[in-house]
Design a protein that fits this description.
The complex is a heterodimer of chains A (324) and B (525). Chain A has 324 residues and is an all-alpha fold. Chain A has helices spanning 2-30, 33-37, 44-54, 60-72, 86-121, 126-140, 143-157, 182-214, 218-225, 230-259, 262-267, 273-282, 286-314, 320-323, and strands spanning 170-172, 175-177. A two-stranded antiparallel ribbon of chain A has the order 1-2. In chain B, 29% of the residues lie in helices and 23% in strands. Chain B has 17 helices and 20 strands. Classes of the chains: A mainly alpha (324), B alpha+beta (525). The interface between A and B is large, with 54 and 62 residues.
């Protein structure tokens, strides 16, 4: 286990290093932030002063080594636009995205697994068919459209829920969270649902497929023959065995949900990282773009690691030392 | 099942207390772009200026139609050609300390020292080379050369207190520590790119603001902004998306207010290549020895081929007016003898033939697709109109982040841009866009097509050294006419600034694009 972990961490640091190069070169190809930020009325001296302050007068390799040096000290640079450390900016936005993404993933489990289970157990029933066809919509409807429809229905027409923003927040561990206040929860309901629709369909289909595959197996038949209650057969023997693919996918989806909450965040004006990164790309705020992408790489690596460890808990047959 | 749903629906309806009822004295504003800082001297960005104006005051302000009005300065007069005298009013900062001439001197000295400023306000203070305090409410501003536009520059500089000490940091403004002004509202809290909360300043020197609290939200997504107004979560939205205009005009719960702005949309034509311009080729793709765009007749033809009323009507949904100059009718620098070019494809074809291009030529027309209102659609419409006079036009649009860099490199033959004249004064676009490119002197800095006309340059120099307002206006009008008749750019339209409020509120539409809580008035239903 220990050597495996060490090897994984070593691989991870390589991935991070490779990403820094790709990202750094990538953002430099897009365009020059000076042309976007600087006032077109500025004269030559003012232009040169700003370029020097941003460090853009240096050759690319020197900018890169400067960035690496800073990164090793935990400093990913200052935002051109906000004049605040990029990490602080992203850190300030992260709780909003995290609570939204985690809520969305929890919702997808709460809705997806029971529905999938039902559809798997009653594949030919009317409700089972309705669930399956409904999940196609969850996959195929674009989330910005669904988001707008939700706003039109629940905020504009019915007036039940607030249309946009994060609402009241309460402090826990020095960070402000929405899920601790009633107003915050009401603001979170629609964006979280919107973000989870795709995942609900995904989990639902995985669960159903797993159930259909597991039910005819010998050990299920044996369990039934032994006279175990149907509830125990389904919830212990079937469900536990189909959880591995579900956990893998959900783990990966958590990363994707955090990284690509962009659409939902901008439709609902949710002040998370996704909105920050879109605004930053529009004005080529390089330090923020780079810091954000580095952060996402780290999140993905961490989640994959946790998923691997979860396997051993769920399925004792998986042995990390031998497999890695 | 149905009954259960009804019970659930009722429960949700009870739990959902309408947000508006709770705070009758609160105004919620949805701005269209993130406010990136609370430091009023950090970034010359309209959304920032619009938000800062609630907390800070300038020496001179603009009224809704763009005319200069006294603000912290009661009057400003010329003592001699290089010295301006400003008389200041009695006012108090939010911390209770009085506003004096010392604060003006301090502010002007601070502006160029702001660290890491991506677009410095220095462009508005660079003309001032010295200050002299005569008494606490009189200050002299000195310039190196006669400079008639000092009052216009002062429109953009917000006054801060000298009590902030040496080198106040932008961070301290963002945290609210330094965000102490003389304006109608006080700083409460700020979350970058998300929200700004303000409270009424009860010690304000001017008319007492109506709103006790202002909740300033930044909702950059257009559809979400409209939806939050329709849902009643916000009281007013700015930059109403044209696509929603028709619907909102018919909604009895919504009131619109609009005014023609100082922001023009136009197509730059390349003047930098004398010989072959790679993006302009013959009708069969052959290399042309000369750049056709250097010929006035070709430029006139390209302008006459554009159906401006059509673009305004169909693409802009009426949220613009056709123009041939940078400033709207009613402005003292609007030349009444510059009429928008008519749509005349026959004359355009004739002009092309006279210029030696009877079969037209091929050209690439570029545009951003995320910068100006309907930018990509405008470019597509123009391309089809050019097609009709035999100019085979290829359209190429891209995000502003890569467009801005390429448009500055003289790679493009024809490309769409916009220009907003914050000061509402005519030499601003002439100096930045039309004057020959000369970065050392700060002239033609935005002249991306590298247009150059010595006659225009000479007239502009004359305007810039004429201190009397009326005589200068005359020269500016003359310069504008001379320049625009030479078609340096194909002018398209002036955008309208449009706000939408909930019924029961009205907003006085402003030429300068700013959304001010003090301009939102409650009307009895």
């Amino acid at each position: 286990m220990f050597t495996w972990l060490l090897r994984r961490l070593f691989q991870a640091s390589f991935v991070v290093l490779a990403m820094t190069i790709i990202v750094f070169v990538g953002v430099h190809v897009i365009g020059n932030p000076v042309d976007i930020l600087i006032s077109p009325e500025a004269d030559q001296a003012e232009r040169l002063k700003i370029i020097a302050e941003m460090g853009l007068d240096q050759p690319l390799w020197r900018q890169y080594t400067h960035f690496l040096g800073g990164a090793l000290r935990g400093d990913l640079g200052r935002s051109f636009v906000f004049n605040e450390p990029a990490l602080k900016l992203i850190g300030g936005r992260m709780p909003a995205t995290l609570e939204l993404a985690v809520t969305a993933v929890l919702m997808s489990m709460c809705f997806g697994i029971p529905l999938g289970l039902y559809a798997g157990l009653k594949p030919n029933g009317i409700l089972g068919r309705v669930i399956m066809s409904g999940s196609i919509l969850g996959f195929s409807l674009p989330s910005f459209w669904v988001g707008l429809m939700l706003i039109m229905t629940f905020a504009v027409q019915l007036g039940w829920l607030p249309s946009t923003g994060r609402g009241e927040t309460a402090e826990l561990l020095g960070i402000r969270w929405s899920f601790l206040t009633w107003d915050g929860l009401r603001h979170m309901a629609m964006p979280a649902l919107n973000l989870s629709l795709y995942n609900i369909s995904l989990v639902l289909r995985l669960t159903r497929a797993g159930v259909r595959e597991t039910l005819p197996m010998d050990y299920i038949k044996f369990a039934r023959a032994k006279g175990l209650s149907p509830a125990r057969v389904i919830f212990v023997h079937v469900l536990k065995n189909i959880m591995i693919p579900v956990v893998t996918v959900l783990g990966l989806e958590l990363g994707t949900t955090i990284a690509f909450a962009v659409v939902t965040e901008s439709v609902f004006a949710w002040p998370g990282m996704g909105k920050l990164i879109i605004d930053s790309i529009n004005v080529l705020d390089r330090p923020v773009i780079v810091a954000y992408l580095m952060m996402i790489v780290l999140i993905f690596i961490t989640i994959n690691l946790v998923v691997d460890i979860l396997y051993t808990v769920l399925d004792p047959r998986v042995r990390l030392e031998t497999k890695a | 099942m149905v009954r259960g749903f009804r019970v659930l629906a009722r429960a949700m309806a009870i739990l959902a207390v309408p947000a508006m009822a709770a705070h009758a004295q609160t105004l919620t504003i949805a701005s269209s772009a993130p406010v990136t800082s609370m430091d009023p001297h950090y970034h010359t960005l309209t959304p920032n200026i619009s938000a800062h104006g609630h907390i800070f005051d300038r020496l001179i302000d603009q009224d809704a139609s763009g005319r200069m009005v006294p603000n912290l300065a009661l009057s400003w007069t010329l003592r001699d050609e290089k010295t301006w005298e400003f008389k200041l009013r009695e006012a108090k900062f939010h911390d209770g300390s009085p506003f004096t001439a010392e604060d003006v001197a301090y502010t002007l000295a601070r502006v160029p020292t702001v660290k890491n400023s991506p677009a410095s306000f220095q462009i508005y203070t660079r003309a001032v080379v010295g200050t002299e305090i005569l008494d606490p409410h009189t200050i002299l501003l000195k310039t190196a050369n006669p400079y008639p536009l000092l009052p216009q520059d002062m429109l953009q500089v917000m006054m801060i207190s000298h009590k902030l000490g040496a080198e106040p940091t932008t961070e301290d403004f963002n945290s609210g520590k330094n965000a102490v002004g003389t304006g109608p509202f006080r700083f409460v809290s700020y979350q970058p790119g998300n929200r700004l909360a303000l409270d009424r300043n009860d010690g304000y020197w001017g008319a007492k603001p109506h709103w006790a609290h202002v909740d300033y939200r930044m909702i950059s997504n257009e559809a979400a902004r409209t939806a939050s107004l329709l849902a009643g979560d916000v009281g007013i939205i700015e930059f109403v998306p044209p696509a929603d205009l028709a619907k909102l005009r018919q909604d009895p719960k919504i009131v619109l207010s609009e005014v023609v702005s100082n922001r023009s949309i136009y197509l730059w034509l390349d003047h930098s290549h004398e010989g072959t311009m790679p993006e302009v080729t013959g009708p069969n793709g052959e290399v042309l020895p000369k750049n056709p765009l250097k010929d006035l007749r070709v430029r006139q033809a390209l302008s006459l081929a554009v159906n401006r009323p059509g673009i305004v009507d169909r693409v802009m949904e009426g949220a613009a007016i056709p123009t041939k100059q940078y400033l709207p009718p009613g402005n003292s620098n609007h030349a009444t003898d510059l009429i928008p070019d008519p749509y005349d494809p026959d004359r355009a074809k004739k002009l092309l033939t006279e210029a030696g291009y009877p079969n037209g030529f091929r050209i690439v027309l570029h545009g951003p697709n995320d910068r100006y209102v309907n930018d990509a659609k405008i470019v597509q419409a123009v391309a089809q109109m050019w097609q009709r006079i035999g100019v085979q036009t290829t359209v190429d649009t891209m995000p502003w982040s890569s467009y801005a860099t390429r448009a500055g490199k003289q790679e493009f033959a024809a490309f769409l841009l916009g220009w907003g004249v914050n000061s509402g004064e005519g030499t601003n676009p002439l100096r930045a866009q039309i004057a020959t490119w000369n970065p050392e002197r700060g002239l033609g800095t935005a002249n991306r097509g590298r247009y150059s006309n010595p006659a225009v340059d000479a007239l502009l120099d004359k305007a810039m050294s004429t201190m009397d307002r009326d005589s200068r206006d005359k020269i500016v009008l003359q310069t504008m006419k001379l320049a625009m008749d030479d078609v340096p750019v194909v002018m398209l339209h002036l955008q309208k600034n449009i706000w939408a409020t909930r019924k029961g509120l009205t907003y006085t539409a402003r030429v300068d694009e700013e959304t001010r809580a003090t301009g939102v008035v409650e009307t009895k239903p």
